[in-house]
Specification:
The protein has 323 residues and is an alpha/beta fold. The chain has a domain of 158 residues: 3-Layer(aba) Sandwich (Rossmann fold). 32% of the residues lie in helices and 25% in strands. A hairpin with a 2-residue loop joins strand 9 and strand 10. The radius of gyration is 20 Å and the shape is globular.
């Protein structure tokens, strides 16, 4: 499949009183048409900010200071963030499901109004046509009695149902890319599985690409064709799902996999946590940010600048001196 999104050397920084935070530090990746991609890393690694940068939704004191975001042959960073061209792309061609639907949905507007507003703005539908389309979207994501529930408010829905509404809202305008930012946070395991299956089926139905942003490699194991591992604002390993799970090469990826229970290993195996804490991103040193937590580190890791991604073959890349 051809590429639909190409991100080149993206840099997003936050200028705080405490110092400079390089939240996204030279990140490059691509997404193909009708592909599911996983973006994985601990909280604070920059994965959500990287996707907000694609949407040009980074708020003050943050700023995109470099790089390219090529979508359909156009560099989105050349467009004014709040200009008409970017607004015509945001929500219509690239849509995002934000974290925690209870705070993402407007509590004083009905579900119907929040859905129809998008349809009226991007698809030019009138009031009655947008309502019919919204009801159809709610039916598609499994909301029962959609004709009556459309007039309910967000607090009338459970967490799983609110997330279904967010999926319906994201897909309502048939976008080419859907970004799901921690789509299963605070949901029970059964609901998580239902929603992930739903998103997979919906993007196939709409012929869209899906980016799943998560801290859990297990979430993307079943659904993603390719995975990018992020740490401290950088991509440290990238490859197909098979490459990442069968032959992980970065110590951070290896550590994440050791934290996941596996059915193919003997009973009684203890999960091995990654020691230490993620780094403070304010005024970071240029050396490898994972070295304080790494059991494979060498003198080179402690003295030389963080290595760029090295091509290992096929689509597998790793940024480590000890690959």
């Amino acid at each position: 499949m051809p590429e639909i999104l190409q991100v080149n050397n993206l840099e997003t920084q936050f200028f705080t009183e405490g110092g400079l935070v390089k939240a996204v530090d030279g990140v490059s990746y691509h997404i193909d048409e009708q592909e599911i991609v996983g973006l994985v890393g601990e909280s604070g690694c920059g994965k959500s900010v990287s996707q907000l940068s694609v949407m040009q939704l980074v708020s003050t004191p943050g700023k995109i200071v470099g790089g390219e975001i090529i979508f359909d042959g156009q560099n989105l960073l050349e467009l004014e963030a709040n200009g008409p061209e970017m607004r015509s792309i945001r929500g219509a061609k690239i849509a995002m499901i934000f974290q925690e639907p209870m705070t993402s949905l407007n509590p004083v507007l009905t579900i119907g109004r929040q859905l129809t507003e998008t349809l009226e703005l991007h698809m030019g539908l009138n009031k009655s046509a947008s309502r019919e389309k919204a009801i159809e979207a709610l039916r598609d994501v499994g909301i029962p009695s959609a004709e009556s529930r459309i007039d309910d408010y967000p607090h009338h829905f459970s967490g799983g149902m609110r997330q279904r509404v967010m999926i319906a809202m994201g897909l309502s305008c048939n976008p080419k890319i859907l970004i799901a930012d921690e789509p299963t946070t605070a949901l029970d395991v059964t609901t998580q599985a239902q929603l992930l299956e739903l998103m997979k089926d919906m993007v196939e139905q709409y012929h869209a690409s899906l980016v799943i942003v998560t801290h859990n490699l297990g979430v993307v194991a079943r659904y993603a064709q390719r995975i990018y591992i992020m740490y401290a604002g950088r991509i440290v390993e990238a490859g197909t799902t098979k490459d990442i799970f069968a032959d992980p090469r970065h110590p951070y990826t290896i550590g994440l996999l050791k934290c996941i229970p596996r059915l193919d290993e003997e009973r009684g195996r203890k999960l091995v946590p990654i020691v230490g804490l993620p780094p403070n991103l304010i005024n970071m040193q240029p050396t490898c940010a994972f070295s304080p937590r790494c059991s494979y580190k060498s003198e080179k890791c402690l003295k030389e600048p963080w290595p760029p991604l090295t091509h290992l073959g096929n689509e597998h890349y790793v940024g480590c001196f000890n690959e």
